Inverse folding.
């Protein structure tokens, strides 16, 4: 006669195997779903971010041109370059809250179309005041784009796949500079000055392209997984279950309590340090290379400017996927930001163009690759409306690093009469971001 206890144990083992099989199947399905989403969502997102980076940095290509045509001094350039981030910071939080409420397809499209119009209006720069106003308006209209994309991707990708998704999104930076730098240089050097100056044509072409992509985004983007017609009902359920599991691990915040959370403010400071190092290179790399060559920024300088971004393009997908696999996001972020700081200091002391390009390439890998890995930390902590507010707070105040960078660099170089110490001073401030990351041990596996 069969022992009932044995029968019970056999049934338990069968149920356990069935449950494990179902979990394993769901994990496999989740991998395939995330792969599908990467192909459906990220190509357009990368294109949008490419145009965003060109919009933020194209002023670096026309620095000498507007100095001649509009009388923009070194100090005025530094202030105008940074004013973008004041406008950006002011509207960042309400912009992200509106994206959460209205949906990504409406709000991200609006952002792109409006900043494309202002980019085209940059042709009206004729003195320092007009330069300041247009740079401020450009930041105001683009506000919410980058944190909006971070928030948007967190709606689709669970935390186990998020760094690699953010890594693909961040590919917009090297792609923008690999192709955008030579194109911008070619426009400045070879574009026939038909009615407008070459630098004005650069703004017209890039602004018009942004408007077209903004219109395309309205018709292509799905605001959330439930709206995605290219996901089956079963895929939506598996994905939603994974996202719900992430939500259980997040801390519950109201909008006001998000602003009072010390961990959020530590994230703000780390991102500030990242952006500080980022724009120290983005704003000045083309003209620094042109100085080494003894020429104005043109096609050849644009080609050399692309070299660091090619290095970033190679490193980004490998490092972000490794960080996801190891689940050591804090350690990776700390190491990459440390690499950026050390490489910037060595680059600033270089007297050879090729040594400079070597170290600035390592710096670019550090401060670009760190960003998708960094964003996986706060998006694991926050959810729903608090995520919209928290991500926007981190993005808006962190991006003020882009305002501080040119002004700090200009001040130090003017005070010391040493063109190398400006970049060194920025790097030393960014070093505090590495120390801040060291004290996030209780938050992540890293």
């Amino acid at each position: 006669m069969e022992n009932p206890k044995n029968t019970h144990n056999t049934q338990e083992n069968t149920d356990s195997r069935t449950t494990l099989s179902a979990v394993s199947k769901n994990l496999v399905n989740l991998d395939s779903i995330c792969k599908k989403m990467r192909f459906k969502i990220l190509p357009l997102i990368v294109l949008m971010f490419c145009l965003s980076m060109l919009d933020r940095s194209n002023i670096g290509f026309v620095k000498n041109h507007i100095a001649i045509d509009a009388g923009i001094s070194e100090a005025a350039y530094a202030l105008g370059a940074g004013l973008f981030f004041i406008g950006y910071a002011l509207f960042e939080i309400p912009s992200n809250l509106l994206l959460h409420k209205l949906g990504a397809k409406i709000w991200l499209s609006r952002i792109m179309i409006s900043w494309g119009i202002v980019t085209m209006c940059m042709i009206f720069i004729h003195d320092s005041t007009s330069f300041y106003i247009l740079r401020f308006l450009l930041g105001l209209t683009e506000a919410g784009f980058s944190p909006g994309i971070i928030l948007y991707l967190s709606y689709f990708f669970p935390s186990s796949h998020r760094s690699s998704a953010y890594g693909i999104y961040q590919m917009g930076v090297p792609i923008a500079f690999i192709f955008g730098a030579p194109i911008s240089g070619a426009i400045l050097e070879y574009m026939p000055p038909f009615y407008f100056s070459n630098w004005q044509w650069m703004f017209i072409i890039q602004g018009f392209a942004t408007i077209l992509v903004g219109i395309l985004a309205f018709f292509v983007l799905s605001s959330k997984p439930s709206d995605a017609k290219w996901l089956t009902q079963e895929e939506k359920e598996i994905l939603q279950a994974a996202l719900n599991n992430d939500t259980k691990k997040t801390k519950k915040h109201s909008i006001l309590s998000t602003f009072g959370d010390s961990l959020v403010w530590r994230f703000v400071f780390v991102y500030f340090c990242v952006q500080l190092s980022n724009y120290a290179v983005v704003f000045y790399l083309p003209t620094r290379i042109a100085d080494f060559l003894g020429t104005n920024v043109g096609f050849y300088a644009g080609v050399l400017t692309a070299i660091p971004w090619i290095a970033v393009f190679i490193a980004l997908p490998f490092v972000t996927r490794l960080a996801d696999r190891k689940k050591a996001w804090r350690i990776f972020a700390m190491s990459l930001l440390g690499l950026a700081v050390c490489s910037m200091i060595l680059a600033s002391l270089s007297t050879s163009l090729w040594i400079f390009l070597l170290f600035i390439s390592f710096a670019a890998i550090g401060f670009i690759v760190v960003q998708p890995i960094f964003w996986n930390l706060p998006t694991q902590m926050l959810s729903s409306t608090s995520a919209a507010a928290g991500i926007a707070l981190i993005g808006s105040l962190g991006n003020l690093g882009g305002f501080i960078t040119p002004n700090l660099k200009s001040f130090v170089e003017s005070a010391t009469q040493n063109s190398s110490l400006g970049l060194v001073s920025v790097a030393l401030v960014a070093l505090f971001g590495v120390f801040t990351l060291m004290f996030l041990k209780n938050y992540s596996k890293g």
User: Anything to note?
Assistant: The mean pLDDT is 82.
